[in-house]
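Sequence, please.
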């Protein structure tokens, strides 16, 4: 009798699990800033270096580096290769 009860509990748990999976929400990944220009970080890149390269149009590199960190929600200036960094528009 105990074996039958355990089997029914296992089947009930399996059934509930399949029902929950059928009602799971599906999230569509949309870029957070789709209209902004971006760069892919390469080995050796820094936020300051990227800001300096972009700031050639007369912007202040230090202020631009801070804006890049804020825009990309970076707690500090550490970035990893392969990361996409959004660059604020002028």
């Amino acid at each position: 009798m105990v074996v039958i009860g355990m089997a029914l509990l296992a089947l009930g748990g399996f059934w509930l699990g399949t029902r929950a999976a059928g009602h799971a929400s599906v999230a569509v990944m949309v870029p957070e800033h789709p209209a902004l220009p971006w760069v892919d970080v390469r080995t050796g890149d820094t936020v300051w270096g990227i800001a300096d390269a972009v700031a050639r149009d007369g912007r202040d590199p230090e202020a631009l580096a801070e804006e890049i960190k804020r825009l990309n929600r970076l707690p500090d200036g550490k970035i990893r290769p392969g990361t996409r960094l959004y660059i604020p528009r002028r």
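The mean pLDDT is 77.
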